[in-house]
Amino acid sequence: MLMEQRAQMGRFRVMLGITHSDTCRPEHADQVDFISYCGGGANRALAKAGVLDILPCHYSQFPEMIRDGTLKIDVLLLQLAPPDEQGRYSLSLAHEYLLPALEHARLIIAEVNHQAPWTFGERYLYEEDLDCIVETSRSPLESPASRPGPIEQAIASQVAGLIEDGSTLQFGLGVIPEAILSALGGHRNLGVHSGAIGDGVVDLMEKGVINNIHKTIDRGATIAGVLMGSNRLNHFAHCNAAIQMRSTAYTHDLQVLGSLERFVALNSAIEVDLSGQINAETAGGTYIGAVGGALDFLRGARRSRGGLPIIALPSVSGIHSRIVSRINGPVSTPRSDAGLIVTEYGVADLRGLSLRQRRLKMLDIAHPDFREQLEQSASL
Q1: pLDDT-derived band of residue 93, with 50, 70 and 90 as boundaries?
Q2: 354: Cβ–Cβ under 8 A, 6 or more apart, which residues?
Q3: What is the pLDDT of residues 305-316, one digit of tens each?
Q4: Could you give the CA distance from residue 295 to residue 36 in angstroms, rounded to a whole number?
Q5: Torsion angle, alpha carbons of 68, 69, 75, 76, to 10
Q6: What is the C-alpha to C-alpha distance for residues 270 and 217, in angstroms, rounded to an integer?
Q7: Is 365 within 8 Å of 315 (Cβ atoms)?
Q8: Half-sphere exposure of 74 (CA within 13 A, CB side)
Q9: What is the set of domains in the chain, with CATH numbers?
Q10: Which residues, at least 6 apart from 135, have a Cβ–Cβ distance to it below 8 Å?
């Protein structure tokens, strides 16, 4: 309805997170300025049309940017679960940067969705906190299911062999993180502390693989900033104290991450160069990813006792190598923060290596068809 009435309102700006709805479409840019931290999901259509402005910021920076007014939010649109017997409305699917936004927005409009899961979190809302309530009953949006193929499964097998029992995991979005989770069925006593979780967590929690019993903080609870999966995940999280929602200021905090022993950060990338520089934002001139929280988690894993900072990606995309001699997009993660790079051909642990040593390790995990070309390019 907001988009339908945009002409009556005058030009305004909308900040988008990652979404899988078609509520905001390129033609709406005639009256709306769209801004987001990412080009994934339905935002990709806006990015391809050239009507999406990007905030190239680390995810951990959003809370402070909202608090100090750098990122101003006048009207906050929320989806909430109906109140419990104590009158507490749950933030349901997402905490992330909504907590500082709640503190600083001039107007809070809540869609109270009777099919949204009621989740435990660090903050609940009461009727007096809300300026406007719209009652609905509709199934929450589901994230598209990802089906790993042989390459993703091979990568997942490489990564699973690095993870010790009792580790605490963080994982990004997409087919590779889900494939890695699927490969962990034989592990024991894993924990989760992640910006987002999907259906793969449900599988491992139901099997008892993820039980969080060895976590040094938040013992017994899976910690997440946002639920991004199917209704299976939503139903599992409903009134389930074993899943606890937290704000970005907590999920991405370096001190918190460093206090988790054997913290394993599992993220992907669009391309990685031979020195370890990582592009997780653009491909073919289009913004399809994000700076996101990968660097926050990689640094947290480096600080963690026994931690592993991992970037996993296929060695090729179509006819192009994703291991490159020179990065083709922005440097989302500098080479000084590179840890373990994994493809279907193996693991390149870049920690403590010189540039020459890194090149050799990265060539070993590149697709064989591109290794000679990459080696020649590197020598120029």
Answers
A1: very high
A2: none
A3: 999 999 999 999
A4: 18
A5: -40
A6: 32
A7: yes
A8: 3
A9: 1-55 (no CATH), 150-378 (3.40.1080.20)
A10: 112, 114
pLDDT digits (tens, 9 = 90+) for 35-52: 999 998 889 999 999 999
- At 310, is the secondary structure helix, strand, or coil? strand
> Could you give the 3-state DSSP secondary structure of residue 302?
helix
Coil vs helix vs strand at 39:
coil
Kind of pairing between the strands at 271-273 and 263-267: unpaired
d(CA 186, CA 228): 24
State how far the Cα of 19 lies from the Cα of 136, in Å rounded to an integer. Answer: 19
Residue 380 has what pLDDT? 53
**Would the pTM count as exceeding 0.85?**
yes
Nearest-angstrom CA–CA distance, 223 and 369: 41
Give the chain's mean pLDDT. 95
CA atoms within 13 A on the CB side of 114: 4
What pLDDT digit, counting tens, does each position of 184-221 carry? 999 999 999 999 999 999 999 999 999 999 999 999 99
Q: In angstroms, what CA-CA distances link 98 with 208, 242, 251, 315, 378?
A: 31, 22, 13, 37, 45
Q: Which amino acid is at 294?
A: A
Q: Which two tokens stand for residue 274?
A: 């031979």
Residue for token pair 């899961």: 117
